Amino acid sequence: MSIGVRVGSLSEAKVGPEKFYFDSLGSGRFLIQRCDTCGLAVFYPRSVCPHCGGESLGWFEPTGKGTVYATTTVHPAKDAGQSYNVCLVDLDEGVRLMSRVVDVPAASVRIGMRVTARVEGAGGDAKVVFESGRGD
User: Fold this and answer.
1) For residues 113 and 101, is the Cβ–Cβ distance under 8 A?
2) Is residue 72 in a domain?
3) Which of 2, 8, 114, 130 could form a disulfide with 135 if both were Cys (CB 3.0 to 4.6 A apart)?
4) Any domain includes 5
5) Residue 49's CB: how many other CB atoms inside 10 A?
């Protein structure tokens, strides 16, 4: 059963680093942060480094290459559309994010699969998705 509530586009009502991230996605750029103190990559956007507590985080464009860490196949109700995957991807830069692998059938996505990120959509509906076989 679906509750049928749409909360609006991803970029609505965001401020600070989160707003910058979604604005960048909306213009076709996938950016993540790196702490200026410890040098580690950071994702989800934030103001303080979760690794060292540093308060200076810069933005950079990751390679987009990564590995599927976990995946599941969602099977909507019979009349609600095709099955799709939801996965956790570990980027080579050291961060993990939730997304989808969009160029293969849902059941074909496997843990350990190499993938490459791309931005899908534009404006407030832009999101990071992955394609298989290009993450080497």
Assistant:
1) yes
2) yes
3) 114
4) no
5) 20
Confidence band (pLDDT; 50, 70, 90) for 9? low
CA distances from 35 to 46, 47, 56, 123 (A): 10, 10, 6, 27
Q: How far apart are CA 104 and CA 71, in angstroms?
A: 13
Q: In three state form, how does the secondary structure of 44-87 look?
A: CCCCCCCCCCCCCEEEECCCCEEEEEEEEEECCCCCCCCCEEEE
CB neighbourhood size of 54 (10 A): 16
**Total number of domains in the chain:** 1
| Domain span at 31 | 16-132
What does residue 24 show for φ and ψ, rounded to 5 degrees?
-65, -45
Q: Is residue 56 part of a domain?
A: yes
Give the pLDDT confidence of 20-44 residue by residue, as tens digits: 999 999 999 999 999 999 999 999 9
Q: For residue 7, what are the contacts with CB-CB under 8 A and spacing of at least 6?
A: none
- The SS3 call for residue 74 is strand
Whether residue 10 lies inside any domain: the answer is no
Distance between CA atoms of 114 and 129, rounded to whole angstroms?
13
